[in-house]
Amino acid sequence: MNATRRAGAAALVVLLAALLSIGAAPASGAQAVPDAEVIATDLSDFPTVRLSVALSGDAAIADLDADDVVVTENGDPVEAEVDALSDETLDVVLAIDVSGSMAGDPLAQAKVASLQFIDELPSNARVAIVSFGNTADLRSGFTTNRDSSRDAVNALATGGETALYDGVRLSAQQISASDATRSAVIVLSDGGDTVSAADLDGAVATLEGTETDFFAVSLQSSEADEAALDALADAADGSVVPASDPGALAAAYVDLGQRIANQYDIVFESVTDAPTATFAVEVGSSGAEASIEVALPDRPGGAADDPDDEVATRTVTPLTGTTEAGTLEQGWVLWVGAALIALALGITAYAVLPDSNERQRRRSLASDRAPVHHDTGAGERFVESFRDTATRVADRAVERSEQGSSIDAALDRAGLIMRAGEFVALVVGVAVVAGFLLYLFMGIVGLIIGVLVPIFGAPTFLKFMAKRRNAKFGDQLSDALLLMAGSLRSGFGIGQAIDSVAEEMDDPIGTEFGRAVLESRLGRTTEDALASVSNRVQNEDFEWVVDAIRIHHQVGGDLAQILDKVSETIRARNRLRRQISALTAEGRMSGLVLGILPIAMGLLLYASNPDYLDPLFTSTGGLVILGGGIVLLIAGAVWLKKLVDVEL
What we know:
Layout: H1 3-24, E1 36-42, E2 48-55, E3 69-73, E4 76-78, E5 80-84, E6 90-97, H2 105-120, E7 126-132, E8 136-143, H3 146-154, H4 164-176, E9 182-189, H5 200-208, E10 213-219, H6 226-235, E11 239-243, H7 249-261, E12 263-269, E13 276-283, E14 288-295, H8 331-347, H9 349-352, H10 356-366, H11 378-401, H12 404-414, H13 420-442, H14 444-489, H15 494-504, H16 509-521, H17 526-537, H18 540-555, H19 559-583, H20 585-608, H21 610-618, H22 620-644
Parallel strand pairs: 6-7, 6-9, 9-10, 10-11
Antiparallel strand pairs: 1-2, 2-12, 3-4, 3-13, 5-12, 7-8, 13-14
């Protein structure tokens, strides 16, 4: 790689890291702001106007007063009084889907979200817990005892079908029997109704006569019945809160809890002469704003005296945070992930930018040429500086563990020009990137796989690289011996013959012979230098060459002729080895496919539908089947390897 290509590659790596950081960071405009919502308008005492406002997110200010609110009528500020509704009695029903499709993470996240929701409610609020699976059951009646409510939530277990409509009716019945001033019903479901005694019309009819805040939290799945949830929400003048995955439930429930707990009456005198008015409420420093347009009574062209016409139709704004997908879409997570990816890309620049200057220096020492130093550009200097800083800590860790020498030896055999600390830093960088990316798609299981596979697979990778390098060394060996024999016939000595191979042939044999020349110039005998090459490449054919040179050194003879004979033998062995490889290619490919396919399919199914594989991990029969499959897979892989592994 010349200097221009190296500088271009370095700049490309830096640019890619920067783009990844920008791409992974959330756009500021994509973040939902804290929200406020006008949930009711009372014009019965007009010109006195009473607005009921619900707050959530950052707008949920404790003990909100008039100083925290800016109220405008058609854009003009008006003085308003703010009265909290927290002193009023409040009853809340939590209805939770416990059908079989909620097994595993969905129900676990639903429990966490429900407990957080309960914590958001005022201490005087009464909570009831309803579950619906095969049947709808009242798990806990209205109570202010939080421990009792928490125990009822924690005791929920999944199984069976979905009696959604029965669950809604049971929840509505609890509210109808309540004497509380305010009430709310929160229904969580991930699917449509399958076994209810009631139908959708019956559930809708039950809700139509109930004055309550109704929210249907829809956990998105292939079984979800959005139309039915919309019909239920419309019947109670409520709304559907979508949750894209189980991790989004906590944010949605916290917002709902804040919305129910933080409701205020804002009272002011209307001063406009217009037939209609737009009332806007801006809450505190959060910037949350809610507005509603109404037709005013007793004005020319205003609404009729019919009380039903005094309240204008309003558009319900989605709650702050209910469209969030959980922790993974929070801004700080994406920033941290972008930083980790950029860090790992800088470290993995070793794999993209091999240090050709170091290799050139070694070859120059092995020959009579002066080393050529390429000028480095700004991009390459940045990568090298970043690399040195990142690997300094890894170097210290390797020195303390006393594993540096074994890692250096493995890197030497694999032909990777890097220190042990650099390789450790590279593995850690790959593990960080793989763990973070798999965590996005597979959760905690993906994180574990992404971190452990690079760490425990690094030794296997080094062995694979060493094996591939040694195989290439073996393919080059016969040509190298012919070149040495020709040099010896031309009158050169054994040292010069080895040097000619180092100069004329490519890596790995050119590099290894160059090291042998360098070691011999530093005082080591030629036989010992070649023996060290044999120890690194672990090639049986080259051991014969070293033995032949040792024997010639002791007894004399025509070394060129000996090398010719050895080269002919090696060429014949390589030809036979390639024939065997061609004949066993189908068996090796079959073993590879049959070994990877079950694992790949299992990971794909787990990523797309974890519930489908739950029986394998949660039942005795599933564990037996899983264990038996693993044993058979290992036995089949070993058997196929024995079939295609032919020894010469």
